[in-house]
């Protein structure tokens, strides 16, 4: 479940009508603009704006998908406003807006919109709720966003769809064998085998065999970043700890840039349900928690870049510099917060990479759950994330075979999850067991899995096409070697008294390099829990203030 699922069935709140008194309160944030009948106010993939409040006439919201399809989504009349989540981020619109009749609007820039949301809290809540609900409708109706064109089962589709879903981005998938317009697109571009899939961006541009970087650029999640800008704080990693830093720092007036490799929420977003996070007695999915934090960060003006992996940290100059992976772009920050988490640990299986995304997965989202509906699956891992995933998958798969190398779950999993797994009839726990071989082919993906029980030495072959690996992670710190950030023998970052020389002072979350801080799972001795990461993300902001004050 994502943040957007929480707001489903509340469509009446997607098109609120502002009272004259409310419009009057908004006037000081905007400027009056007039448009002729049929004139375009904003264009998908190109125009960035904050919000338009209609004073006269109407704004027709439409979709153009680059395949020649144009359709009307809705119209905003007098007292209503145009905008959705993209506008909070300052990203290009995913839809088009045209004037119906002679139109007068109160136009707010992105910066003015953020000021309004903070200054007028109650009114801001209604606006943000409407923005979220409109994104929900886009996701449900597949309006706006990217159109992916490929034959069913293409191996790259899972990765692209997974990235889009993880970042809450609407998209459609068309099969050129059955869809006439997709077939016409293929006939026009004549893609070679290496060109699949095709991606049609909101502005109508077509990308051949796109990467997630290509999708990020055409959807605005990867904005241009100037090397001349000096940020107060650069946060590397948008997991719970990094998002907490971003929200607290930006809310206190610091300029914040967040660099994230894949999707906001990090590994926590893969948790189907977190039941011990304070304030959510019925539990909340990791994706929903991360989605709320992401929207909150946009409200306070955080600049988020996804996908934007950091390649090197350079500490021999000040401001500090982060070099982007695969480019020579150096981004400057007065302080850098390392919340880069960890990389998924992979078992030593010879052909593992062959089946990643084609039967082997490192998270369990609705996309993966849909792929294994009514099938048997294998899940490897004995931690809380593995337990949550097993319970979630059990509601979709016919059976979940859970493999652990220990003789029980007691030492690695919370008791409430152990009880739940025991009470779920279609979860079978295999102790002291591990996968020793994967079989399949490039065309069909994974087909068979061989499992060995270490106690009995018995080996069993399962006709299973879906394997989920939740076997932990390794600290993502290899890219820090040029900076000299000290790490422990396992690669986790040392902070505070662990690196401070006798008689010297160092903030609790500061690394061996002044101005560089570490929080969350990547930090040595950290508690590997979402709540702990959020707490460190909040705590580090006061330490950043102290450092910046010392440099003034």
UniProtKB/TrEMBL annotation:
SUPFAM superfamilies: cAMP-binding domain-like, FAD/NAD(P)-binding domain. It comes from the Bacteria. Pfam families: cNMP_binding, Pyr_redox_2. InterPro entries: cNMP-bd_dom, cNMP-bd_dom_sf, FAD/NAD-bd_sf, FAD/NAD-binding_dom, Ferredoxin-NADP_redctase_2, RmlC-like_jellyroll. Residues 14-134 form the Cyclic nucleotide-binding domain. Keywords: Flavoprotein, Oxidoreductase. The keyword Flavoprotein applies. The keyword Oxidoreductase applies. This is FAD-dependent oxidoreductase.
């Amino acid at each position: 479940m994502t943040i957007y699922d929480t707001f489903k069935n509340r469509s009446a709140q997607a098109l609120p009508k502002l009272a004259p008194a409310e419009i009057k309160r908004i006037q000081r944030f905007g400027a009056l603009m007039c448009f002729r009948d049929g004139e375009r106010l904003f264009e998908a993939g190109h125009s960035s704006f904050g919000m338009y409040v209609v004073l006269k006439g109407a704004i027709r919201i439409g979709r153009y998908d680059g395949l020649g399809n144009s359709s009307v989504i809705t119209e905003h009349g007098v007292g209503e406003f145009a905008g959705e989540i993209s506008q909070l981020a300052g990203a290009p619109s995913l839809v088009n807006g045209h004037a119906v009749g002679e139109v007068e609007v109160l136009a707010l820039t992105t910066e003015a919109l953020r000021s309004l949301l903070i200054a007028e809290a109650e009114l801001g809540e209604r606006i943000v709720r409407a923005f979220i609900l409109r994104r929900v409708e886009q996701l449900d109706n597949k309006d706006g966003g990217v159109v992916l064109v490929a034959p069913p089962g293409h191996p790259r589709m899972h990765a692209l769809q997974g990235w889009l879903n993880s970042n809450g981005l609407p998209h459609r998938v068309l099969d050129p064998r059955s869809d006439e317009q997709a077939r016409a697109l293929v006939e026009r571009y004549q893609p070679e085998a290496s060109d699949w899939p095709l991606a049609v961006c909101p502005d109508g541009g077509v990308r051949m065999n796109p990467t997630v970087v290509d999708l990020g650029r055409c959807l605005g999640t990867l904005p241009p970043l100037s090397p001349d800008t000096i940020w107060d704080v650069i946060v590397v990693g948008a997991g719970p700890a990094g998002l907490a830093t971003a929200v607290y720092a930006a809310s206190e007036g610091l300029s914040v840039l967040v660099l994230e490799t894949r999707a906001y929420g990090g590994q926590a977003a893969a948790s189907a349900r977190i039941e011990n996070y304070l304030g959510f007695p019925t539990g909340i999915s990791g994706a929903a928690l991360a989605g709320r934090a992401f929207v909150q960060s946009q409200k306070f003006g955080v600049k988020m870049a996804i996908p934007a992996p950091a390649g090197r940290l350079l500490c021999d100059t000040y401001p500090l510099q982060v070099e982007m992976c695969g480019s020579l772009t150096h981004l400057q920050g007065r302080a850098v917060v390392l919340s880069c988490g960890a990389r998924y640990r992979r078992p030593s299986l010879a052909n593992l990479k062959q089946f990643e995304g084609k039967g082997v997965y490192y998270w369990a989202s609705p996309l993966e759950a849909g792929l294994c509906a009514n099938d048997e699956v294998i899940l490897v891992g004995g931690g809380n994330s593995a337990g949550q995933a097993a319970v979630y998958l059990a509601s979709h798969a016919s059976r979940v075979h859970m493999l652990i190398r220990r003789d029980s779950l007691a030492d690695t999993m919370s008791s409430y999850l152990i009880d739940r797994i025991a009470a779920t009839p279609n979860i079978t726990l295999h102790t002291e067991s591990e996968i020793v071989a994967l079989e399949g082919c490039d065309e069909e993906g994974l087909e068979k899995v061989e499992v060995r029980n270490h106690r009995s030495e018995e080996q069993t072959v399962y006709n299973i096409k879906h394997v989920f690996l939740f076997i932990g992670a390794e600290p993502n710190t290899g890219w820090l070697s040029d900076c000299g950030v000290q790490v422990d023998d396992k690669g986790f970052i040392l902070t505070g008294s662990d690196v401070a020389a006798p008689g010297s002072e160092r903030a609790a979350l500061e690394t061996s390099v002044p101005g560089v801080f570490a929080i969350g799972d990547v930090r040595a001795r950290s508690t590997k829990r979402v709540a702990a990461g959020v707490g460190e993300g909040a705590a580090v902001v006061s330490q950043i203030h102290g450092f910046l004050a010392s440099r003034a």
